[in-house]
Design brief:
Layout (H helix, E strand, L loop, with lengths): L1 H6 L4 E7 L15 H14 L5 E9 L12 E5 L2 E4 L2 E4 L4 H12 L3 H12 L2 H5 L3 E2 L9 H4 L7 H14 L5 E5 L1 H4 L10 H9 L3 E5 L16
Helix pairs in contact: 4-7
Length: 225
């Protein structure tokens, strides 16, 4: 990743591996791996310091356990799951799992499910003291292809606006995340154009993030300047 970033002329690269998720081990790094992860990134930071600035981050899921927040340069706060009774429903794993969760716990009402998602996202800074809000409207990941719900529904709009308003009271930035574009799920970044416009009008701090899981994805969809 670092060598690819250097070859493309990047000045800075940040690593933000996913925090451990006890109920979904593949969803994050293994329990007990955080120290080795931090040591590896710090070693690379020193090795390549003359060529690029390397930052150590963590993407901390809302439902992950405690972590050493002072050990990182930055924290991305995100919501990948919804707690429904004693079950955790993934909102971005597969369309099928999202459909199953909506039917089982929300009677097929995706707008109601989205409302619960945004209520949870609005609490992220309180839970993990993050610096950045990750992929704010992740719930809509599959909607462009599958049309699960109407993103112009007033109830949906009110839900994300209320979440934005609450998050804007914290000292956090919002990702403009191009990850789903690279993976072929969306034609626009998170957050959606309407949400991004709303945030910009209210003076939100924004940061581009390609959410790169492979080196070829670095900087995908970023503006040239």
């Amino acid at each position: 990743m670092i060598l690819e970033a250097i070859s493309r002329g990047f000045k800075v690269i940040g690593f933000s591996d996913h925090s451990p998720v006890a109920f979904d081990p593949p969803g994050g790094m293994p329990e007990g791996m955080q120290l080795a992860y931090r040591q590896a990134v710090r070693k690379l930071e020193e090795k390549y310091s003359s060529l690029i600035t390397v930052r150590l981050g963590l993407e901390q899921d809302f439902y992950s356990g405690p972590f050493e927040e002072n050990a990182y340069d930055y924290i991305i706060g995100s919501v990948h799951y919804l707690k429904c009774a004693d079950t955790f429903v993934a909102v971005d794993d597969t369309p099928g799992l999202l459909m199953e969760g909506a039917e089982t716990f929300f009677g097929g009402d995706y707008i109601k499910m989205a409302g619960y998602y945004f209520e949870t996202v609005a609490q992220v800074p309180e839970k993990n003291h993050c610096d950045i809000i990750g992929h704010f409207d992740l719930f809509s990941k599959f909607n462009e292809k599958y049309h699960f719900f109407d993103e112009q529904d007033p109830v949906y709009i009110r839900a994300w606006q209320q979440a934005c308003d609450r998050l804007l009271t914290y000292d956090v930035a919002f990702e403009i995340n191009t990850g789903a574009m690279y993976r072929g799920w969306r034609s626009t970044p998170y957050p959606s154009p309407d949400i991004l416009k709303y945030l910009k009008e209210r003076g939100a701090r924004l940061i581009y993030a390609s959410d790169s899981h492979v080196k070829e994805q670095l900087g995908y969809g970023f503006p040239e300047e």
